[in-house]
Amino acid sequence: MKVDVKEYIASGILEAYALGHVTDHERTEVEAVAAEYPEIRKELDAIQDSLNAYAKEHSIAPTAGTKEKVLQAISEYESDKRPVRRLNSMEDEERSDPRNKAVWSLVASVLLIISLTGNLYTFKRMNNAESYVHELEHKVHRKDSTINATAAKTDQMEKDLAILKDPMYKMVELKGQAKDTTAKAMVCFCPGSKLVYFAAEKMPEPPKGMQYQLWAIVDGKPVDEGMITMGEGLHKMKDLSTATAFAVTLEKEGGSDVPHGDMIVMGNI
Amino acid sequence: MSAKVFSEEELVTALKKGDQEAMAMLYDNYSAALLGVIFRVVDNREAAEDILQEVFIKVWKNISSYDRSKGKLFTWLINIARNAAIDSMRVKDYAIKSKIQSIDNSVRSINRQYNVSTQVDHIGLKTLVDKLKPEYKVLVDKLYFEGYTQEEAAEELGIPLGTVKTRIRAAINHLREVMK
User: What fold is seen in the domain B124-180?
Assistant: First the structure.
């Protein structure tokens, strides 16, 4: 590297270097230049000497024991290196003995087999436990639905019972007609609240495409009271304020304006 | 401190060979100066002595990386000590304390500037520190001891960066003058 020595010294880079305020690139450059130009080396040494002298002015004698602590730490650091080596050499000896190797291999294999067997056993037990939990969950679920259904049924029965016990309701017994004399049904009618309930006590299931329809006889004429849903308990029908009799006919699905089919049951109020 | 048996080069050679007696000699020669440098940064005697121990152990472990062509042994040692001290300040996040310390230092230097006559210790035995102009001294202290960059020193002292560069050069020249 070609430099003008005076210019280089005047640039202030040597002072910056001595203070440690240079980039890695600058440091490399200064060191290279100082190695090449003795004059610059001398200048740099002088700068460093002056700063070092300045630093020495601030000297503080360390406490007496510090020197011993330093030397002991260094001596411990040096002796710490050795046991590591000794440990390694012991391992090397063991490793180089083929009998030891065989024994360790066997021990490792046995331990592995025990471990795998244990894993398998645990895995099976876990699976069993899981399927048992699933089964219990199903059972609980089934019980829940049964309880819900029972509760709903109980609820319905209580309501029906309340109607049956209510003195405001007129209980109309509908008896089987020519087609089936054993057929039986009942209507609960409360003229005050206009409520009408129907219960099919003994009626055969209607044929496919057919449905039972309830009629109220008002002033000698049949009035539509709605289609009958088969099933237990009381079923609410269309409101009605007055009637002299009730009758059920078998009609086409969806019902008719006027009765066409056979009369199944009938009863006077 | 000046009772050297080995030359600097012989000392380095012995240290590189792992001679622990050479280490004792190194400690005798440089520990006080290094402790002074560390103390300037951390401003706590106990912490400074702890760092001093670490520095010597670091020197022992890294002596192989020392190269005379890169500077004098003392410069290398001071750099290790200063960096260790500055690192410890960074680790402990003593930034605020160091600000207070820098104010302290300014106060001290002002005191020194105006009360030289009352400092009986120094009468007839003026040290380098006393001979250095205050504006030079504060700059050398910041840049050399406290690890400020030139930019940081410019900001802290409220002077342009160019002035810092010319002033530090003048300060070191002045040091060299008064050393003669």
Answer: Arc Repressor Mutant, subunit A (1.10.10)
